[in-house]
Write a structure and sequence with these properties.
Helix content: 25-40%
Number of helices: 13
Shape: elongated
Strand content: 25-35%
Number of strands: 41
Mean pLDDT: 93
């Protein structure tokens, strides 16, 4: 039990001698063992509680403390106005700040409504310190009132234990050289250094010099750097907003990195990247996205306001000075080059190139499947994954997965019909050159064969080398059905619906339980993926002649796809070594010598050599497995 006492007269006298003052010393309570030696030039107003511990004394100088509690080992120095209505936890440091206070009941950004995608409202996401990309996705794209009401109830229940009338400074938090912090919480281990102001927010990560944060939440391991302005935003674990980036009504999830530019009404799913001052992210969901310099988007046609939204699916990129008009939808792993001033929908053709030529939007389906840039993406994302163990975002970085491969399968069927003159209604605002269709089909077929072959090989190796079954006598219906990409999580849609139903029916009653449910889906991906592959190839039973025939065919096609992949990657990568790429070299010596010294030779490129090694490995694995199967 915590026991506090009033100050003794000699303690009051000593504090006065050290430049301290109060008109109501009776309001100051301390624990036994209280030390006054490191409290100087401080004014106490109202009800004050100070925890005492000889090994961790409280240090206060040049500050006004009003109606606040101070725990062990706290350091407070140089407060311009006051610390008012604060609860300051053990070991925190507050130095050179203008003002920290709570001026009434406040939510600290909790449950703040964020109007993503549609600026005028309709897709609001409620802020929460443990908001995951998946929960936010459900909030933004589900229209069920039952779901929204139950999620709001969960948040209300979790809100009951929060201190609405206090500004809490968490254990070991550091606040230095800042302006005002009003109606906000600062979490355990958080750092705020040089910020101009923090208003109606919760900061559990880091905020840097010259930044202003309002009605927002920065999660643990979230980073807001120098000169940023955020209003109604969420910055997740491992997300970075820095170098003067400005944003409003936007969500930035794990490993997103947004610098210098601006965002409005943006849902930045994991690995959204924008590094240029001239780039505007606007009214869209982006995922595994890379924005080129000067990329711009428009959602306002001067009719009924900014109502239009964009969908840029995972892995897509925009080139310098590119433009898209909303509402548009871009398929996974698409590169957008040029300015497209009409609405486009390319969602049925993943791994494509969208260019602007002769005042037309031209789409080359499948042309980027096995391109060098997209082949590098998986490695790049894995290397750049900075999530902490506390991250709640579930991420699958694989470019080929049941979601994208299902799209490829449908694209193959569509392209075959287009050879006979069929014009798909789903394809909006773009033209597909007829002469490119056969190339598209070849690449798409290779992509499917590569994916099936890898999955079969992994399962067979498990069977032969670990004596584990690779059959599935009862393929899960959910796995054989539709798959979705939920802001980085690839999973069967039926399982997502089950989570939604569990929220509606109160089987999931907290954010932690919901996030755990999504995490389980992520951890079971390999099993679900195998079930999906079997649903496409048929039930496989090693030893059965029909199964042997299927497996032999899949492995043979896998090898051929790997060889085509290597050819396409090398052909694409070699474009970086042609003579036109050597312009600008050789200012003081021969062009070839300068270029080779700086860039190296094509044959020695580490990425090309890696793909060559992967291809040799695939050939060896397929040969070994075929030998076992055909015994």
């Amino acid at each position: 039990m915590e026991i506090f006492r009033k100050l003794h007269k000699h303690e009051i006298d000593s504090l006065i001698a050290q430049g301290c003052r109060s008109t109501e010393w009776e309001g100051v309570s301390v624990q036994e063992g209280f030390s006054i030696s490191e409290i100087n030039f401080t004014e106490f107003v109202g009800t004050i509680k100070i925890y005492c511990q000889a090994s961790h004394p409280v240090k206060i100088s040049f500050a006004t403390i009003i109606n606040s509690t101070i725990e062990y080992g706290v350091t407070i120095k140089n407060v311009g106005r006051a610390l008012e209505n604060c609860y300051i936890c053990e070991g925190s440091i507050i130095e050179n700040v203008a003002h920290i206070s709570t001026d009434g009941l406040t939510t600290h950004g909790f449950a703040e409504k964020i109007s993503v995608l549609v600026e005028s409202g309709g897709r609001e996401v409620l802020l929460h310190p443990k908001l995951s990309a998946q929960i936010a996705y459900l909030q933004a794209f589900l229209t069920s009132n039952d779901f929204k009401e139950n999620l709001a109830r969960i948040m209300k229940d979790e809100d009951k234990n929060r201190k609405h009338n206090l500004c809490t400074i968490g254990r070991s938090a550091v606040i230095r050289d800042c302006g005002r912090i009003v109606n906000s919480d600062v979490g355990e281990g958080a750092e705020i250094s040089g910020a101009i102001e923090i208003v109606e927010s919760t900061i559990n990560g880091k905020v840097g010099a010259g930044s202003s944060v309002s009605k927002s939440i920065v999660a643990e391991n979230g980073f807001v750097g120098v000169g940023c302005v955020l209003e109604r935003c969420f910055v997740a674990d491992s997300a970075v907003v820095d170098a003067g980036f400005t944003a409003e009504n936007s969500l930035f999830f794990a490993n997103s990195e947004c610098l210098r530019g601006e965002a409005c009404a943006v849902f930045a799913a994991p690995f959204t990247s924008s590094h240029h001052k001239s780039t505007l992210l606007l009214a869209a969901i982006y995922s595994f996205f890379t924005a080129g310099s000067g990329s711009n988007f428009s959602n306002h046609r001067f009719k009924l306001g900014p109502l239009h939204q964009g969908v840029v699916e995972r892995g897509s990129k925009t080139g310098s000075s590119s433009y898209l008009l909303w509402p548009s939808r871009i398929a996974p792993f698409t590169s957008v080059i040029g300015r497209h001033a009409k609405v486009v929908d390319t969602s049925i053709f993943p791994f494509s190139l969208l260019v602007r030529e002769n005042n037309k939007s031209i789409l080359l389906p499948g042309s980027l499947l096995f391109s060098s840039g997209y082949e590098r993406d998986t490695t790049k994302w894995l290397e750049r994954d900075k999530r902490s163990s506390r991250s709640v975002d579930v991420i699958n970085v694989q470019p080929l997965n049941p979601y994208t491969v299902e799209k490829i399968l449908k694209a193959i069927d569509t392209l075959k019909l287009m050879l006979d003159g069929y014009v798909p209604e789903e394809l909006v605002g773009v033209e597909v050159p007829r002469e490119f269709i056969h190339k598209s089909l070849a690449r798409y077929h290779a992509g499917v064969n590569f994916y099936y072959g890898k999955a079969i090989a992994e399962a067979l190796e498990t069977y032969y080398y670990r004596n584990e079954r690779v059959t599935s006598h009862c393929i899960e219906k959910a796995c054989a059905g539709e798959w979705v990409d939920i802001a980085g999580l690839i999973a069967p849609k039926e399982f997502i619906n089950e989570i939604v139903d569990d929220i509606i029916n109160s089987k999931l009653s907290s954010y932690s339980e919901i996030n755990a449910a999504f995490a389980r889906l992520g951890s079971n991906y390999k099993k679900y993926k195998w079930e999906w592959v079997l649903s496409k190839l048929g039930n496989i039973n090693i030893g059965d002649d029909d199964s042997k025939s299927i497996v032999e065919n899949v492995l043979t096609n896998w090898r051929k796809a790997a060889e085509l992949r290597l050819e396409l990657v090398k052909r694409d990568a070699n474009k970086e070594y042609v003579d036109s790429m050597k312009i600008g070299y050789g200012l003081l010596e021969g062009v070839g010598e300068d270029f080779s010294t700086v860039r190296g030779e094509f044959e020695d490129n580490s990425f090309v050599k890696k793909v060559e090694a992967q291809t040799r490995d695939i050939i060896a694995r397929s040969d070994a497995l075929l030998a076992k199967i055909l015994l």
